[in-house]
Design goal:
CATH topology: Purple Acid Phosphatase, chain A, domain 2
Strand content: 15-25%
Order of helices and strands: HEEHEHHEEEEEHEHEEEEEEE
Number of domains: 1
Strand order of the largest sheet: 1-16-15-14-2-3-4
Number of helices: 6
Distance between the termini: 19 Å
CATH class: Alpha Beta
Shape: globular
Structural class: alpha/beta
Number of strands: 16
CATH superfamily: Metallo-dependent phosphatases
CATH architecture: 4-Layer Sandwich
Length: 327
């Protein structure tokens, strides 16, 4: 397959002497979603809370076990009263420092106990501060795998499960080896889900301090995401919230402030559509048909960003999808 072969060429990036380059400027998805910004009143849910929709929360860099993490967790509990999500994506650095049983209790089980008791499922990606054995911690639902995929479908009050729904891919961005990249390329290509969402720890687009690392990862990963028509990419690592302007038709979010914060760390760049680096935060997301809603919320319960992505249709005569072989 051409996509897989291209991925294998790109894997040289992560080895000494790799020569992978940025994609050509005119390479992008042919029919990306469009975005509309929403401005809810203070304390108001921007998401429509539609019957049968897919509802989730998103946290990154959470595992400190301190007052700030617990305050964010409490806000998640408060907002769940009006938006009953049953899924949380964890974007890595889930448990900082030591990784004893006591650490898992203090840095995960206790802060999120009300959510766990309510049956909320946590799906984790692994980060650079995480113990590699974390993949076997049953409450992170990684199934012993450092990268994996799962699907969520919308439900109908009449007919039960229905609709194309969403598929999620959790990656191990600590090591984007050829096997993992080929697996992602094949999964994106074969997926019939309406929304394709990829999440991992290290961002490939950022206005923070890790731009050099983001550029290296981007050369390896972005061609796979573009070829596979990924819609949304979620990352942590940078300890703030950032939503970028769409890059090659893909929407990128950084949400790495659920337990860690670097105040004032977002640099002024044309990349940023909305940034927030003055307090801790988390995200809510809702998927309903051709619409994906998002809302970023601070530790104080204030909305710092909100909007809706809508699926588009290719413009007549425009053909921009695909990648070209590396020169």
């Amino acid at each position: 397959m051409r996509v897989v072969a291209f991925v294998l060429l790109l894997s040289g990036l992560l080895l000494p002497g790799g020569c992978a380059r940025e994609l050509p400027a005119d390479v992008a998805r042919a029919a990306p979603p469009t975005v509309s910004v929403l401005q809810p009143a203070p304390g108001q849910l921007a998401l429509p809370n539609k019957a049968g929709s897919i509802r989730l929360a998103i946290i990154g860099d959470s595992g400190r076990g301190d007052e700030a993490q617990n305050a964010v967790a409490q806000q998640m509990v408060v907002w769940r009263q009006q938006f009953p999500f049953d899924l949380v994506l964890m974007l890595g650095d889930n448990i900082y420092d030591s990784h004893t049983g006591a650490d898992y209790r203090a840095k995960f089980e206790e802060p999120y106990k009300p959510l766990l008791d309510a049956g909320v499922t946590f799906q984790a990606a692994i980060g650079n501060h995480d113990d590699s054995n974390q993949v076997r911690y049953e409450k992170f639902n990684m199934g012993g795998q450092r990268y994996y995929s799962f699907r969520r479908r919308e439900t109908s009050l009449v007919g039960g499960i229905g609709g194309a729904g969403a598929r999620f891919w959790a990656l191990d961005s600590r090591s984007l080896d050829p096997e993992q990249l080929a697996w992602l390329a094949e999964g994106l290509k074969d997926s019939g889900s309406r929304w394709k969402i990829v999440f991992f720890h290290h961002p490939i687009y950022t206005s923070g301090r890790y731009t050099a690392g983001a550029s290296s990862l981007r050369r390896a990963l972005e061609p796979v995401l573009v070829n596979g028509d990924a819609d949304v990419v979620l990352s942590g690592h940078e300890h703030f919230y950032e939503r970028t302007h769409p890059q090659r038709g893909i929407f990128y979010f950084v949400s790495g402030a659920a337990g860690s914060l670097r105040r004032g760390d977002i640099n002024p760049t044309p990349l940023t559509a909305r940034g927030f680096d003055t307090d801790y935060s988390f995200m809510l997301m809702e998927i309903a048909g051709d619409e994906l809603y998002f809302q970023a919320i601070s530790r104080a319960g204030e909305t710092v960003d909100a909007g809706v992505l809508r699926k588009g249709k290719p413009a007549a005569g425009v053909v921009t999808k695909g990648t070209a072989p590396l020169p």
